[in-house]
Design brief:
six-stranded parallel β-sheet, 16% strand, two-stranded antiparallel ribbon, alpha/beta
Length: 253
Amino acid sequence: MTRNIYFIHGICDFSLSFIQMFRFLGREGYKVYFNDLPGHGSKISDWEKGSITFTKICSAVSLDIKKQIKGEKFILIAHSMGCAVASNVFLKHKSQIEKIIFINPFTPMGPFKKIDKNPELPKKGKDYYVTIVKFGKKYDLPEKEETLKKTFFGWLPQDYKFFLPLMLELAKQRRMRMINLDYREIAKYVKKIPISLITCDKDTDIPNNLTLNYFNNMYKKFSHYTLNCGHNPCKEVPNEFNSLIKTIVSKEE
């Protein structure tokens, strides 16, 4: 029986950056589904229709899963910010999901030294995430949006500056706490749905020690794998990455 896989890419990216994985899994007999997130890749023109929010992205992914997979079982694979999207859509499709694979996931960091069991929304004037880690450097973000924009523009490539509103949304503590709650919901189902985490030793976008610490706090049980590369293992070490993905998806648990 053919097994289904659904893949979710990250911010400022597009699905076909993982095309080598798609082709490899296809040759191995898997049916791989994917789609560019709103405002990304083939859907870049979505920005002309209005702002792209994290909520809109999650809704679009959930609808795409319903349209493409149509109630069948599937393995969920996500990369970077796509992992936060995956955790959000999880509850809507938990009866279909066989296992989840997170690749260098975007998770709440910085001010979240421990998991908030009863998170309070930040007070007015304290709405922005304290620290962003990018290219191995920490940026302490001030609370004024205009200064925030200058900080983001400092490293954001010219072609990607229309992603700024979405990045600012993800930088808010309010959104971070909501994402934190989404990841926590998955913890209730770890006995039934296996979780695998892939981190990369040279990832400067999302340091693996912070990610691993977050997962150790969040989940009592998960499988952890490491690769010696940067943020996108499919581009950097495709053979090793594909071999690892095959091991995880074919593992009986």
